[in-house]
Amino acid sequence: MLRILALHPPTRSRAGNLFHAVGIFASKWRTAEREALPAFLQRLPNVLPAVITVVIILLGTFVPAESGGNTRGDRAISLLGLVVSLGIFYITSRNRSKINFLAVFGGTAAQFVLGLLVLKTKAGYDIFSFIGEMAKKLLGYSSVGTIFLTDKTVPTMGWFFISVVPAVIFFVAFVQLLQHWGWIGWIVGHFARVFSVLLGISGAEAVVAAASPFIGQGESAVLIRQYMPRLTKSELHQIMTSGFATIAGSVMSAYMTMGISPVAIISSCVMSIPASIALSKMRYPETDEPVTRGRAPLRGAQGEDVLRQAQEQDNMEAAEQDADAPEEERAYNSLYALGQGAWLGLKIAGMIVASVLCIMALLGLVDGLLGWWGSYINVPQVDIQLIMGYLLYPVAFLLGVDRTNNGGGDLRSVAELLGIKIVANEFVAYGDLTTDPKYQTLSPRSRIIVMYALCGFGNFSAVGIQIGALTQLAPHRAADVASVALSALITGIVATLTSASIAGMLIGGDSL
């Protein structure tokens, strides 16, 4: 049916109208639902979403039959990890009386339903598997350029530099081309409308949350650059959290070429979007009035006549954005856009290579100093992995990692990988997961959970990237950005971990 519909030229406008109609239906449904409730429940508007969320999670977790690597006891521990995460963020909230529980319960339910779709239904798994395989094939075409520049044997060498850099450059250039054609803005704008209506967040937050997996941390905020000076601190917190909780399309290629499951990467990113919203709105509730509340800044106005006004509003906003854009940033044709993307991809790939090189060297230095100090206390094997393995041991347990494999050794191995991801970055952690012999004995359950847990930009080096990007867009908000950065980092890390907990509650096989 989709193929038949795609044969007609107005498909894009019809799909846009469908998105707008869904938004109107969801808004009216919420209004009718509230009016249909008894009077005492209308005074407690969060009761019904809470009950629905709890029922969905309990049924989805414990009803499916057990398997060898996923008993109900294992699921209960992963569920406990999710509850503990939500409870800690509620206790440490800056203002519990202002928490948007619609975003909390709606985001948690959406995250779990997405997990069910991927891990418990053949149709959902097939969809994400198809997307992952198509992405892998798309990125594989970068080897054509590599072969032209070198020879046929180079792409098969398996080096990080050879396998990652060409794929990153090609993918960034391809995304830049899609953005020039208007597809990225179209997709992100409609996703933003869905988030804004269903979760009650502002349009600016919804845009960045929807764009983060496509564009990446920092860069996604460019889509709302005209609103940056007027964002509330809660919105800044949410924008940064979205960046830390997910990864960008430009680096998905790197993980896939390293042997990480495309299904795990894509589903983790999608699941972590509502998770970042839920946790951020608990940790840093909105206390002001956002200027984009109730509307997505990339799309038309909402209301009864939204279908008629949408196209006119889109054209006006597109014209304003083009007028505001610096002359050198605008691509005059597709070839120019591709060239711009290639240059941007080269800079991103260069930053990745330089960061990994320097971080690995710095970790080696720190490990050397720790080993030198450890020799004086008769613990010569002390290093960062050992320390983080013990500090994050409870976290690995609450994720539901296999407690029996290797005599319980999986718990410390996963904790070490989590520590590497936070201290260094996910590149280094994924590299160790796929190449270091000590992690090759992880059970299938532990391996799947840690694939989800590592899939995010939540590390200390990413804080500098986000602060630099956001302060460039709104220089006078530098102090506000810096004040919420650490809280957003922790929130983003935990949002990714909750996706891993849900994966632990739902996985049923030995692989993805």
From TrEMBL:
Domain Concentrative nucleoside transporter C-terminal: 265-504
Annotated transmembrane regions: 47-64, 76-93, 99-119, 158-178, 190-215, 262-279, 348-372, 384-401, 448-469, 481-507
InterPro entries noted in UniProt: C_nuclsd_transpt, CNT_C_dom, CNT_N_dom, Gate_dom
The Concentrative nucleoside transporter N-terminal domain, residue ranges: 80-151
Keywords: Cell membrane, Membrane, Transmembrane, Transmembrane helix
Lineage, opening ranks: Eukaryota, Fungi, Dikarya, Ascomycota, Pezizomycotina
Annotated organism of origin: Sporothrix eucalyptigena
PANTHER family: SODIUM/NUCLEOSIDE COTRANSPORTER, SOLUTE CARRIER FAMILY 28 MEMBER 3
Compartments, as annotated in UniProt: Cell membrane
Protein name, UniProt field: Concentrative nucleoside transporter, CNT family
Domain Nucleoside transporter/FeoB GTPase Gate: 161-259
Membrane topology, record value: Multi-pass membrane protein
Signal peptide (from-to): none
Protein family (similarity comment): Belongs to the concentrative nucleoside transporter (CNT) (TC 2.A.41) family.
Domain of life: Eukaryota
